[in-house]
Structures are given as C-alpha cells and as structure tokens.
Model the fold of this input.
Amino acid sequence: MVVKKLKPITIGELINEVRSYNPNADFDLIRKAYRLAEKAHQGQKRLSGSPVISHCLTTANLLADWKLDSASIAAGLLHDTVEDSNFTLEKIKKEVGESVAALVDGVTKVGHLKMRGSVSEEFIETLRKMFLAMSRDLRVVIIKIADRYHNMQTLQYLPADKAKGIAQETLEVYAPLAERLGIGEIKGQLEDLSFSYVYPKDYRWVKQYAASYYKKAEEQIEKVRRELLTALAHESLRVEINGRAKHFYSLWRKLLRPEINKNIEEVYDLMALRILTDRVADCYTALGVVHKLYRPVPYLGVRDWIAQPKPNGYQSIHTNVFLGDGRIIEVQIRTHQMHEQAEYGIAAHWYLAQLKLKNKLTSKSIDEGNFFSPAQKMVWVRQLATWQREIIDSHEFINSVRFDALKRRIFVFSPKGDAFDLPEGATPVDFAYAVHTDLGDKAAGAKVNGKMVTLNYCLKNGEVVEILINKNRKRPSEDWLDFVVTRLARKKIGQKINGK
Ligand code: MN
Done:
C-alpha cells in the first residue's frame, strides 16, 4: 500500500549509490552518459515542470537500487535521448560505446509498442510477448520498468485521458512483466499507482471501505508482533518481524472473487506478519513457534513455497492462524535473502548477493556483466523459458513454438500498427497469411517501411509490412512454396493449389 516516493537526486548521489554496491563500476562511463543526457535534454521540461534530466537521474537511480551494472545505469540516463532529442543512436554509440547504445536502442524500440486503446486479451498478450522478445536483453525490460515506475508517480500532470491510457498499459503490461521478473514489490506498487486512474470509482470505494479494517488490523499486528518476538527470542532465534499491508489493488481483486463476495472480513491477508530469518532451518523452527502460540486455521493450511518455489522463484512459508478472538492473520516466514529476492528480485540483485556471500564474485566481474556462472545462466534461461511458455500458451495459433521463440522470432507490424510475430526468415507472403487467408491468396506485391520489396523478401524485426493485392487473383502461386517458412502459409497455399 505504501508507494515509495522518489526524490530528485544529483549525479554525485547516483555515483555514490552505485559505488555502495560496486566500487569498481565504470564511473567514467556513467559520468559521460550523464553529460551526454544533460546536453541532449538541455532546457527540456516535463509536464510536472521538472527538468527531463532529473527524470533520467531518477530512472538510473532506481536501476542502482536494483544493483544493475554500469551499462544499464548509463542507458538509464540516456533512455529518452533518441526519442526526445536530436541525438541519434550513432552519436550515442560513438560517445558511450556499443553496449550502452544497444540498450538505449532496445528501450526506444519497446517504447513504440502502444496499446492504442485496444484491450483484447489477445492483443495484450501479444504486446507482452513482443516486449520480451524485442528487448532480447532483459536489462531493457528492467530499464523500461524503472522508467515507467517514475512516470507513474507524476501521472497527475498529464491530461486525464492520457493518464488513464498509461495507467491501463501499466496494469496490463508492466505490472505482469514485473511479476514475471519476480519483482513483487514493484508489481504491487505499479498496480496501486494505476488503480485510481483506471478504476476511479472502485478505488474510492475500496479506500473508504477498507480504511477502518486496515487500522484495526494494524493494531492487532503490532500486538502479535511483540508476542512473537518474545517467543522467538526464547528459542534463541534471531529474527526480524515486520507487518505488511496488502496492496490496495490486490485487495480489490480479491474482494471481487465470488467466494469473498466483497466482504472484507473474508480477506485473511489484509495485514500479514513477515518473519525474516538468517537460515532456512530457522524458518521451520519459527513456524513451530508460531503454531504453538496461535492455532493454525485447518482449512486454510500451510503453504510451503520454500520446499516448492513458485514458478517465478518466490520462496516463503505462509500460514494462517487464529488470534483467539476469532480473527485470522497470515504469517509469512522466509530468510532475508528470499525476502530480498521477492521484493526486488531482479536477476542481478539476487545472484550478486548470493555470489558475494560465497566470495565468488569480484566487483570487476559484476561490471563486465559476468554475473552468472554457466550453471546459473542455465537457471536464468530456464526461468525465461517458463515465462516464454506461459506467454505463448495463451496464444493458440503458435502453440507449436518452442523456447527458441525468443531468438528465432521477429515482430512486424501492419500499417495500422497491429503486431504479428513470425519466425525468422518469414516473407511478406507469410505475413499476409498470418493476417488473413484472403490477403495471402490475393497478394501481388509488398511494401516494407513504405518501400516496394519482392514477395520473397526476408522480413526484419520491427518492420511495417503492407500487402498489395490483386482482386482478380484466384489462387496463390505455386512458386511461393519455395520460400514461405510458416506452416500456416504452406498449408493454405497447398490447399488452394491442390483443391483447385
Ligand atoms: Mn523516460
């Protein structure tokens, strides 16, 4: 429920923040990126009245909070330059090098993916998928999330309909991406920041309805917290116990569930207690202590996501207990490390912390981006595969696609801006059949980014494809079978030719 307010910072403060977790960061690069961004955005102001450069600094500072590498910090500073200044990508490449330029390019490209008011589930899935695939480098997604997080905090300065559109996009695209990246805290905050813009009436209703319950729950939590601290100290367990209030938006979603039926008394995790321990074994000891003091609620059960982590890596033990007066609260138990991961679990952060603990990582290798040993890289890739599968599953027409989707697929746009994903090597004919059978059958020529191309032209990521048709054409050309790559196009062409 609590959204961290972002304060304006200076380049010196940013440098200090980076130094605190990575003394050997490439500070020259970061300073150079700053000077470049400052020049690019000279005199530019945001609608809030604050200079654009301070938005760049805030974005970069969030990335530093999440302990990203120097290239990401530099790209965070430069993320709006290509879009909003006359600086070209070439210039950025020349000044700060290829890897930072590539990140800026990625951020600029995914920035062009707009929802355009269309909110069908399928379209949103396409957008999320495209986002991941076009960015290729996950750091691009993370930079976009940082950028969006700050933009959401200054939404009140935008015209109402524009603000609503951005908030909607945040709910549909960015918050789910944050969740998939395992950044639970950011997901919750993005949702809460969007809530009042997208569903203003419900927001006011929930806020008013829940206020007294939150207050009461807070008092109870404090009492239980003290009791637990004493009991756990008796067991010589070193723990930290915090209360956490449920995010507003997620409370609202829960209230809408049929079994809850808008009755807040049925929501048991309005407030939860979080016990943070040093070691995994301590989690189970703490669970025993909790259950000795407060009886567990049998029908709600204990959920052990330490033994069996959630797909996004989340680990914690959750239990619901009776407080004695009939009330129920949720208690979450996890190690400090699991907590860090759950709140800000961006790849680098978690792996860095782990590796640092084991002294396997030098600051230098952090900065070279060698975060991952080959084995850990595998974990990361597997995780990506999970998201990819999750995202792809909801899209029926490409359910045969395997994990190579990330690398082997391209995204192209119709002249209206609709996105289509195709395998690498796809041609305008593949595109035409992906749009509509009739468009394929009648295809006579194609334009890519406004220029005529041949029908066997090899499409590239991000291109806008327009198919020119011949209305009198009855069936596709057999020759097309020599170059089409999608099963769909092959099947349709085959049917028309054989079926006559
Ligand atoms: Mn920005």
In short: The chain has three domains: 11-198, 200-367, 407-497. The CA atoms of residues 18 and 119 lie 39 Å apart. Residues 11-198 form a domain with the Hypothetical protein af1432 fold (CATH 1.10.3210.10). The beta strands are 239-245, 271-277, 302-304, 317-322, 328-335, 409-413, 419-423, 443-448, 451-453, 465-469.
